[in-house]
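for the writeup, i need someone to sanity check this before i put it in the appendix. the sequnce is what the collaborator sent (i think, or maybe the updated version? ugh). structure was predicted straight from it, no edits. if anything looks off just tell me and ill rerun, i have time this weekend
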Amino acid sequence: LSVSGRTLLIRAALGLPVSDFDLDLRAAEEQLDDGAAGAGDVTVAVLDGTTDPEEWVGLVAEGRTLLLAVDGDLNALAAPFAREVTELGGR
């Protein structure tokens, strides 16, 4: 799968087919920064509290775009890493 030439990295650990994500890839594509150095890969995953927050920060620091299906309260789940991601230029 690709979004304008970007590789979607589907995390095998999810155990979910891509169809389980209700994603509007056109809307997501509009949020991608074409000129960002090191950008290009998109990580599609579930934000449910089971992934170490530092993993999300590390992916953003590498220039990846996170496309997360939220399973739970977004504010509570994102709180441990939201500030760092924002400081790295994430939205």
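The two ends are 24 Å apart (CA to CA). Residues 47 and 78 are 8 Å apart (CA to CA).
thx in advance!!
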